[in-house]
Amino acid sequence: MSVVTSSKARWRWKQPSVIPGFGLTLGFAIAYLSLIVLIPLAGVAWRSAALGWDEFFRIATDARVVAALRTSFWTAGLAAVINAVFGVIVAWVLVRYEFPGRRLVDAAVDLPFALPTAVAGIALTALYASTGWIGQYFVDWGIRIAYTPTGIVIALIFIGLPFVVRTVQPVLEDFDSEVEEAAATLGASRTQTIFSIILPALFPAILTGFALAFGRAVGEYGSVIFIAGNIPYVSEIAPLLIVMRLEEFNYPAAAAIGAIMLIFAFIILFAINLIQAWSRRRYGHG
Amino acid sequence: MGRADFRNPVSESRRAKWITIFVAGVFLALVLFIPLVAVFVEAFRLGWGAVLAAITQPDALAAIRLTLLVAAISVPLNMVFGVAAAWAIAKYEFKGKAFLTTLIDLPFSVSPVIAGLVYVLLFGTGSFLGPIFNSAGMQILFAVPGVVLATMFVTFPFVARELIPLMEDQGTGDEEAAISLGASGWQTFWRVTLPNIKWGLLYGVLLSNARAMGEFGAVSVVSGRLRGETVTMPLHIEILYNEYNFAAAFAVAALLALLALVTLVLKALLERVYGRDHAGAVRH
Amino acid sequence: MEVKVKNVRKEFDKFPALKDVSLNIKSGELIALLGPSGSGKTTLLRLIAGLDFPNVGAIYFGDQDASQKSVRERNVGFVFQHYALFRHMRVLDNVGFGLKVRKKGDRPSKAEIERRAMELLDFVQLKGLEKRYPNQLSGGQRQRVALARALAIEPKVLLLDEPFGALDAQVRKELRRWLRDIHDKTGHTTVFVTHDQEEALELADRVVVMSQGRIEQVGTPDEIYDTPNSPAVFSFIGESSKLPVSIENGQLYLADRPLGLDAKGVPDGEGQLFFRPHDVEVVETGETAIVGTVVVSRRTAGTRQVELEVGGAKERVEIEIPVDHPATSRSRIAFRPKKWSVFAG
């Protein structure tokens, strides 16, 4: 077993340690990471760069691509907003209230993480189709859910549900009840305490959960394609367009749309890190 | 707020409480519970026999076999990676650690379709690597290796994600003590570190496995859907569904839903032995 | 505002935290609830605030029965040990919060709230920090914000739960004096909880010593220190030494030897002698006095602390004697307490 010796240089990139295996584990981790993730991802950048700017721009501004991106973004945004609202309510109920079946519900919140997306997709479609258990009641009101953008939103709510609940839940659990008591001694009503003390304190967690749910929803494919109806310009999502271009062996176009979505994913990742850094700086917690 | 509960300054009235529980319940029922129940109801619409027939049909069996094979390859590999990465990141101080952690998280932020796309671009026509493997007689794309690679990509961070915070919390004291007592690196890992992280490791493996068996988007891009060869269970569901063979589609779906339920039960059990604090990693 | 606690009993899951406690707090008084953890002092404070409610008994604010009022309606200023500041609000908004949540008719204008909050921040010597977030302040500064926030609602009573408990010794001393100042300027009826006797004795007009859910003694710091009324108070307040004695004809005896000390009215029988280690005089070994063998002798700053083995019984007492006394190991020392208390039992 080799012990890593520290160099005499003033700037050292690793602190010395008596624990062996640094070179082996880091080397393996980086090699594996590069082979499975980094090099393949770089391929997308390389392929879209090979297109040249004009060609890339032409693909990116193609009416159908723009429509698909727009659909992806607004449905994901709406679903994430709905999840932010109901996720907080669910987290609240799980943390604050005792009721029969609480543990079961708590465990079930993770179902969207565990249930394959294709299964969720066909189940939601069966339910929200105009003949389905739930869909039929909406048809009476003239509302169709499956095979419209509304259906996409339903699928994305399912996919994103655990994110807000699971980011808000621990913060709410750790919330100091003395702070609520302080508000009460100062004369605040329960409603005032909830809306001007507790919810603002949860805000960074809600925002993080929202961003995670949004990021996941924009890229979601499996559950959406069954319920969306996939009508071009109406209920066609960007990931589906990538799949279609690939099936036409139009790899450059697929790479270009993929690159746009990747850039977006990086922005989301960056935003989440910003939110957390900001919240740590201001509130002293993440 | 009514007079009845003036004695309790930090809780809501009973009415507000039950209304909130009701709202949460209706929401969860609509997006979570009813869809889950629907899977099983739709599957058993034609009875047990039909379900059995659907999952013992040759294509279905081939799909089940492939799904198990893919998980059996990708999960252990990701486990080894996860342990190595967590060891390097948690047990040492070095520059660029935060960046490396972010890179490991990357696959969670990327659309599954893109996970497939990257391998198509890497091995497909017009690529640099494709022809090399082809001339060596190895088919990657639209074959089992492609399916495995795409699955590895999407399940890549699970184990590492779970172990890094856990091992960072545990610090390096135990390992340093073992080394100072004369243990070798491997002895230290097997006898000291592994017992400390076993529940976290199992947790990561569990989540990694659930995703590996259920992945749809990434696999659908690279599979080519050759029946009996490159079709996994989720893809098989799609094929049956698109052929309007709903009962059979739901029968296979029920099998996967069962897997999800088992995963959730095991997960809840693991959280009990190993504590929610660590098991709370959100980015799945 | 005068506060009366009448025959209050409070149980948590059948465990009695307070057993039949009564207390009168005079208007404008600064009073300390002193006791070890689990003595019920914080519970009593929370009952006065209306954060908890008694199972039996009542609490009066002036002539009004406050027991039927919620914490919101009682208008008390409460300062928590860990500050309980609103982390997402600036210091200024923290202080103004109590005014901002008032009902429409009673609520001052925005500008007026801001003006009063600034005034209070000036009062607690935090001018210039109003735009900071609590996270950007030191512990002592946070506690000042918490106090300003409590004062903003013009409370009838100011209640502080271990207000300096989370601060380091230096800041603690400083804030103690400052709190006394503030109290003298505002004249609020103030109750604070502490387990630190030094803090209680230095700061309070009257000290309430609590133990195991009961009030042991209420009195001025001098009364509490000089004439403790029970063994519990004596051993809890200040340094104390204790010896089991017997009482005959109003005189104290240790293992049949007279000590030359009066029993102070305690009836004949078994008893316990309490005295302060520093309140003793060394006498010649021939006199009637407590005689012991030196076991441990420690020189501390201005005095010598000596542990003595007394009598045939293996009792040990500690006394403080002048440093010029040699107190060599195994030597014998005779002493008499200058002040002492005797309790039967």
Automatic annotation (TrEMBL), chain A:
PROSITE patterns recorded for this chain? ABC_TM1 (PS50928)
Query: Which Pfam families does the protein's record reference?
Result: BPD_transp_1 (PF00528)
Stated membrane topology is: Multi-pass membrane protein
User: What superkingdom heads the lineage?
Assistant: Bacteria
Give the UniProt entry's GO cellular component terms. plasma membrane
Residues annotated as domain ABC transmembrane type-1:
69-272
Could you tell me where this protein is found in the cell? Cell membrane
Instruction: List the keywords (alphabetical).
Output: Membrane, Sulfate transport, Transmembrane, Transmembrane helix, Transport
**Principal location:** membrane
Named from the GO MF annotations, one term is:
ABC-type sulfate transporter activity
According to the record, the segments passing through the membrane are: 21-46, 73-95, 107-129, 141-165, 194-215, 221-243, 255-278
Task: Enumerate the NCBIfam families for this protein.
Answer: 3a0106s02, permease_CysT
Oligomer status and interactors: The complex is composed of two ATP-binding proteins (CysA), two transmembrane proteins (CysT and CysW) and a solute-binding protein (CysP).
Quote the function comment for this protein.
Part of the ABC transporter complex (TC 3.A.1.6.1) involved in sulfate/thiosulfate import. Part of the ABC transporter complex CysAWTP (TC 3.A.1.6.1) involved in sulfate/thiosulfate import. Probably responsible for the translocation of the substrate across the membrane.
The family annotation for this protein states:
Belongs to the binding-protein-dependent transport system permease family. CysTW subfamily.
UniProt protein name: Sulfate transport system permease protein CysT
From TrEMBL, chain B:
Stated name of the protein: Sulfate transport system permease protein
Subcellular location field: Cell membrane
Keywords assigned by UniProt, alphabetized:
Membrane, Sulfate transport, Transmembrane, Transmembrane helix, Transport
Gene Ontology cellular component terms for the protein in this record: plasma membrane
Q: What does this protein do?
A: Part of the ABC transporter complex CysAWTP (TC 3.A.1.6.1) involved in sulfate/thiosulfate import. Probably responsible for the translocation of the substrate across the membrane.
What highest taxon heads this organism's lineage?
A: Bacteria
Q: Which residues form a coiled coil?
A: none
Q: Which GO terms describe its molecular function?
A: ABC-type sulfate transporter activity
What are the transmembrane regions?
Answer: 18-41, 62-90, 110-133, 140-160, 244-266
* SUBUNIT field: The complex is composed of two ATP-binding proteins (CysA), two transmembrane proteins (CysT and CysW) and a solute-binding protein (CysP).
UniProt topology in membrane: Multi-pass membrane protein
Main location per the UniProt record: membrane
Automatic annotation (TrEMBL), chain C:
Claim: ATP-binding is one of the keywords in the record:
yes
Q: Which CDD domains match?
A: ABC_CysA_sulfate_importer
Molecular function terms, GO-annotated: ABC-type sulfate transporter activity; ATP binding; ATP hydrolysis activity
GO biological process terms on file: quaternary ammonium group transport
Q: Which organism is it from?
A: Pelagibacterium luteolum
Could you tell me which Pfam families the record lists for this protein?
Answer: ABC_tran (PF00005), TOBE_3 (PF12857)
Q: PANTHER family, from UniProt?
A: SPERMIDINE/PUTRESCINE IMPORT ATP-BINDING PROTEIN POTA, SPERMIDINE_PUTRESCINE IMPORT ATP-BINDING PROTEIN POTA
**Designated name of the protein:** Sulfate transport system ATP-binding protein
